[in-house]
Design brief:
The complex is a heterodimer. Chain A is α/β, with parallel strands linked by helices. Chain A has 2 helices and 7 strands; from the N terminus they run βββααββββ. In chain A, the strands form 2 sheets. In chain A, strands 3-6-5-4-7 form a 5-stranded mixed sheet. In chain A, a hairpin with a 2-residue loop joins strand 5 and strand 6. In chain A, helix 1 crosses helix 2. The longest helix of chain A has 14 residues. The N terminus of chain A is likely disordered. In chain B, strands 1-3-5-7-10-14-17 form a 7-stranded parallel sheet, with no helix packed on it. A 6-stranded parallel sheet of chain B has the order 2-4-6-8-11-15. The longest helix of chain B is centred in the first third of the chain and has 4 residues. The model of chain B has no long low-confidence stretch (mean pLDDT 97). The chains are: A alpha/beta, B mainly beta.
Chain lengths: 120, 152
């Protein structure tokens, strides 16, 4: 089993070895759009919900080789603003994606991936 | 549909197809797997059951949920939940491990009454965190044993 640093900022298992065909379940974009942006909680990014949802799924896709079965937390800064994502993986599929403000210092179960500083 | 007095290895979305209501009563259940069902259009009642593994991550109980007088053995991870057009009632259960409510958006009321949370829960915890639970129509909580506002 190999380990490495991803070009997206995360440290994890060599993407060539694991899960090359991880795909999104049906309805992930819709549920992500409805839940992840409720109450305008990412309005500080100054982007439309549609744009943020699309870019959010792209970010998950870019890091999918690092995702493990179960709960995955992705943390980093978007346009200099701390943001966190969740991706839940089951049976080779990404079942759900979520995004919430900030980066918590609370311990979390599952995999944590640091995607670094990115610009949207 | 009522399923009563049975041993059940796995209960999932396939079992709910075609029903508007489903009542599990007095069953020994190894796994309930409702992960990622974003519109569970069934009024689900789970009563008097022993459940080894309750999996409800990303499940939206749009027609409500009643969990009453069950014993739940596992660490329950309810993330990205809520979106319940009808109430969620959790009453008289014993949860042997932690019950994690994470970034749930409850549209209708959630009631926690007379449960035992042996290792607690965080339904009302994590104040100020980006994943604090949201209650559009409030909550009703009374008579529980164990902390319900853990920061975890």
């Amino acid at each position: 089993m190999g380990y490495g640093v991803s070009k997206f900022g995360g440290i994890g298992i060599n993407p060539k070895i694991l899960k090359p065909k991880l795909t999104f379940s049906e309805g992930v974009l819709e549920s992500f759009t409805e839940h992840g942006f409720a109450g305008g909680r990412h309005a500080d990014l100054g982007l439309t919900v549609k744009t943020m949802a699309s870019k959010g799924l792209s970010l998950i896709k870019q890091n999918k080789a690092l995702l493990k079965a179960g709960d995955n937390t992705l943390i980093g800064n978007i346009n200099g603003i701390p943001k966190s994502f969740k991706a839940f993986v089951k049976d080779g599929k990404i079942i759900s994606v979520n995004m919430y403000p900030g980066i918590s210092n609370r311990a979390t179960k599952g995999t944590v991936i640091n995607f670094g500083n990115i610009t949207w | 549909m009522v399923k009563k007095n049975q041993y059940i290895d796995l209960f999932n979305q396939d079992d709910l197809k075609g029903y508007n209501t489903f009542h599990l009563d007095n069953c020994l259940i190894d796994t309930i797997d409702l992960v990622g069902i974003f519109e569970l259009n069934v009024n689900l009642v789970i009563e008097n059951c022993i459940i080894n593994d309750l999996k409800i991550h990303s499940c939206w109980f749009t027609r409500g949920l009643l969990m009453k007088n069950n014993i739940v053995k596992n660490w329950v991870d309810y993330q990205m939940g809520g979106h319940n057009a009808m109430s969620i009632v959790i009453e008289g259960n014993v949860f042997l491990d932690f019950f994690n409510f994470f970034d749930c958006q409850f549209e209708n009321v959630i009631e926690l009454k007379n449960n035992v949370f042996k290792k607690g829960t965080n339904l009302l915890g994590n104040k100020g965190e980006g994943f604090e639970n949201i209650f559009a129509n409030g909550w009703f909580i009374e008579g529980n044993v164990g902390d319900i506002d853990i920061n975890r």
